[in-house]
Sequence to fold (123 residues):
Amino acid sequence: MLPGPVADLNAFVPARDFELSQRFYLDLGFTRLWGNSDIAQFQAGDFRFLLQRFYVPAHAENFMMSLAVDDADVWWQHIQEQDLQRKYGLGMAKAPAVQPWGLRVLYLSDPSGILWHITDNRT
Fold:
């Protein structure tokens, strides 16, 4: 049991190239709420994360984020229209597909190798 109410929760997402990663998240559709030369907060809907000027390859290569959306196909279409894979040299950009555990997942890596699971419940 928590000792009291929680106001917010943010993951600290590493960025190899902080400026490039910021542009990527803006192109993906996130809103930049605030930032300085070392950290920036991004938002999608009511949810946020902190992008930081910090990069350790082993950490970034094993870091994943999950974003649940109403329709992963809409996100995939946006990713394709923005040509994010080519524009940012992304290692992973896979169209939504139903996974063995029942969710449809769109896999997308960011410029630092962070793997995003963009999921929906449509089957």
The longest strand covers residues 39-44.
